[in-house]
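Try this one yourself first.
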């Protein structure tokens, strides 16, 4: 397929530009996908604002059109001759290049190339586009090393935290969840968590009264204050899973973690964890968790810069349509 397409290009600090570029060409083992829906991930917003850890890994000059959009679904419009099980007209997710190109995600565009798409025919494009964050949430839980009946504290009930809460519920885990926003706490409670308002001065005491033996803390808030607290709440031999978006350096409570014999995990997709893409896609395809009500704003790709400039901090997710 030849021609031109629109793409958003991160050109510098707080500056996405809409450009016209060639529709990418596929290799024999790849498919070309017309994007239907793409979410704005916290990492996209963080990189645009210059404070995500990816900003430590890349210079502005290294970004290319379409990056770093990755929460996407779309329709296959061309399939390479070596592609099996996927054909033109199929609805797919996992629209990025894998292997040595895993960070090459270019879905802030009308079209993108994928070499390991997952078939989700019959699914809702606005639901299955979130396979990537569900993979992230499953990875968090894997690194928590917990079993049915255990108690887990999930600090932060943003989009990822709410996914983690739902997935833990479905594994029959007892969940305590914290946040500072009332709406997020209400959502978390509706998903089965016992909730504690982190703004309360006696937050730690309230959690301790609920928790018993907390086997793991999955930290999704990115708050240094929370880190100071969780070391005192974690049970002996428990695990702290670090996922919140922090500055380059963070401070952990060495004494508290040491006397508990704690394990601290820093999850990274594909490292010390199986590939959870297919389970994530199936969970969404079967509507086993709620994501649609977590979408607060819908817009056009061409308005990406404007959306980021006017981003409401109450929003959980924004979905764009090219």
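Now uncover the answer:
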């Amino acid at each position: 397929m030849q021609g031109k397409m629109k793409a958003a290009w991160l050109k510098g600090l707080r500056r996405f530009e809409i450009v016209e570029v060639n529709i990418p060409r596929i290799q024999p083992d790849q498919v070309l996908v017309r994007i239907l829906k793409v979410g704005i991930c916290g990492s996209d917003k963080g990189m645009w604002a210059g404070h995500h850890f990816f900003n430590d890994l890349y210079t502005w000059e290294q970004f290319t059109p379409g990056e770093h959009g990755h929460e996407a679904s779309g329709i296959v419009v061309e399939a390479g001759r070596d592609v099996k099980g996927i054909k033109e007209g199929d609805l797919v997710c996992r629209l990025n290049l894998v292997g040595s190109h895993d960070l090459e995600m270019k879905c802030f565009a009308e079209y993108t190339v994928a070499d390991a798409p997952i078939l989700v025919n019959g699914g809702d494009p606005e639901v299955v586009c979130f396979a990537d964050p569900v993979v992230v949430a499953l990875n968090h839980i894997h690194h928590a090393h917990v079993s049915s009946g255990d108690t887990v504290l999930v600090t932060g009930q943003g989009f990822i935290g709410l996914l983690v809460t739902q997935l833990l519920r479905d594994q029959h885990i007892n969940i305590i969840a914290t946040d500072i926003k009332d709406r997020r706490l209400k959502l978390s409670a509706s998903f089965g968590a016992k909730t504690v308002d982190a703004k309360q001065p006696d937050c730690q005491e309230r959690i301790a009264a609920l928790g018993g033996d907390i086997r793991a803390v999955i930290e999704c808030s990115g708050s240094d204050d929370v880190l100071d607290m969780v070391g005192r709440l974690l049970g002996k031999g428990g695990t702290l899973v670090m996922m919140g978006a922090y500055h380059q350096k963070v401070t952990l409570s060495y004494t508290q973690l040491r006397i508990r014999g704690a394990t601290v995990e820093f999850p990274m997709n594909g490292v010390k964890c199986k590939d959870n893409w297919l389970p994530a896609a199936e969970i969404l395809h079967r509507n086993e968790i709620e994501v649609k009500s977590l979408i607060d704003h819908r817009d056009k790709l061409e308005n990406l810069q404007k959306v980021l400039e006017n981003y409401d901090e109450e929003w959980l997710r924004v979905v764009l349509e090219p």
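Discussion: Residues 133-265 form a domain with the Rossmann fold fold (CATH 3.40.50.720). The CA atoms of residues 53 and 248 lie 7 Å apart.
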